[in-house]
Design goal:
By secondary structure, the protein is mainly α. The chain folds into 2 domains: 70 residues; 45 residues. The longest helix is centred in the N-terminal third of the chain and has 27 residues.
Amino acid sequence: MKSEFRLFGLLSGFLFLAAIVYGFWSYYGTNPHRTEVIGLVALILSGLLTTMCTLFFFTVAQRIDPRPEDRPDAEIADGAGEVGFFSPGSYWPLGLGAAALVGAVGLVYWHVWLLALGMLGVLGATAGLLFEYYTGARRAAE
């Protein structure tokens, strides 16, 4: 996790530096002198978002043992092993994407009923994706 928090820390520093440079540049580059607020706010909020990720990865890195990616003396074989479980054939992501599409179309055209239908579909597909291996034919034998 140390490599992640360093990467996000560098990105946060860059975004805050870019916000300062952008603020001065937009102020002194116009006549009369005015700062372009939208870009400045976007850079500051992006910097705050990456700072939040930096702090998260920093706290996680303090709590867990160093991973092979974090140790300079690690070998490639140290990272071998089981990565995790990935569902081999699930149709729930397709339903989740379709429900998100319906919700997005409802948001674009501001049809509240279509937006509500899409959000209900997103909740249902998320629940189906979450509980896929707890119910039905793929239920683990007890």
